[in-house]
């Protein structure tokens, strides 16, 4: 079986043992070391480590002091954590449709969605490529919107040389399957000194020093054990990313011309880090998306559907007061992509033979 992802953190053994032997395993110097390394990757002054990527989004929204009725515009095609974080922060969610070429927010749709209550623009950098920040950032600046980038899948990605997470507040996930993992964990990046200070107080139960409470805070801390797992990956991130890019290039070359299959693009000016290699199985393909997925699984090729529905198209969100007037039919591109997207293995632990097997199997079952 060629898995859709492989987690290998054996390089972290020495640092993990160092933390265990120290007897101090909660947030400490290893977290600081991890934060410094992550800030370097993101090109920001600050990186604030937290306990998961959802927390990064929630804390960032909380730090903006949004009021009831304030709106956040985001993508309808994303993991549910994006939506859940906005709801937890008590903001009203507005969606804008996506573009098919990058799976991210359509700037024209965003401009049309802004109202007098919109306070935050939350683009989602999906599958390892940034949204079109060259158009989205100016819209946010013109409309005086704060930018919170859901960069969960985009560590190391960039737009015209500027790293994901550096356009406002960046929120990253370090979940087990991400390009950099600490098993569970998250990071918030920013150049704003005051905001960074507030986030560090907020993650520590609102304490600046022991029993010196400044705000009603939370326990959002990362442990030194988790940080120790992530540090070696940051040190070799360029190498890991290059392997993903080489695998993606090989997949694109091998799958080009496969009937009914639309391949992912690296758009001009963007550095794609290939968290996922996601194809679209169109209506003219020999097999449906589900049939192709089942055929690949039966032949030992791991694959995944990320994501099968528009994010709010679940019973638990129907009629939610903070998701007013959200209708699936209003987002035709997101709906079509959700029905066709299928991700293939692209992780850095694939051999050339593995990639060739993926290509040959996909082409075979689709009659190419």
From TrEMBL:
<dbReference type="InterPro" id="IPR015424">
    <property type="entry name" value="PyrdxlP-dep_Trfase"/>
</dbReference>
<dbReference type="GO" id="GO:0008483">
    <property type="term" value="F:transaminase activity"/>
</dbReference>
<dbReference type="Pfam" id="PF01041">
    <property type="entry name" value="DegT_DnrJ_EryC1"/>
</dbReference>
<dbReference type="InterPro" id="IPR000653">
    <property type="entry name" value="DegT/StrS_aminotransferase"/>
</dbReference>
<dbReference type="InterPro" id="IPR015421">
    <property type="entry name" value="PyrdxlP-dep_Trfase_major"/>
</dbReference>
<keyword id="KW-0663">Pyridoxal phosphate</keyword>
<feature type="modified residue" description="N6-(pyridoxal phosphate)lysine">
    <location>
        <position position="178"/>
    </location>
</feature>
<protein>
    <submittedName>
        <fullName>dTDP-4-amino-4,6-dideoxygalactose transaminase</fullName>
    </submittedName>
</protein>
<feature type="active site" description="Proton acceptor">
    <location>
        <position position="178"/>
    </location>
</feature>
<dbReference type="GO" id="GO:0030170">
    <property type="term" value="F:pyridoxal phosphate binding"/>
</dbReference>
<keyword id="KW-0045">Antibiotic biosynthesis</keyword>
<comment type="similarity">
    <text>Belongs to the DegT/DnrJ/EryC1 family.</text>
</comment>
<dbReference type="InterPro" id="IPR015422">
    <property type="entry name" value="PyrdxlP-dep_Trfase_small"/>
</dbReference>
<dbReference type="GO" id="GO:0000271">
    <property type="term" value="P:polysaccharide biosynthetic process"/>
</dbReference>
<dbReference type="GO" id="GO:0017000">
    <property type="term" value="P:antibiotic biosynthetic process"/>
</dbReference>
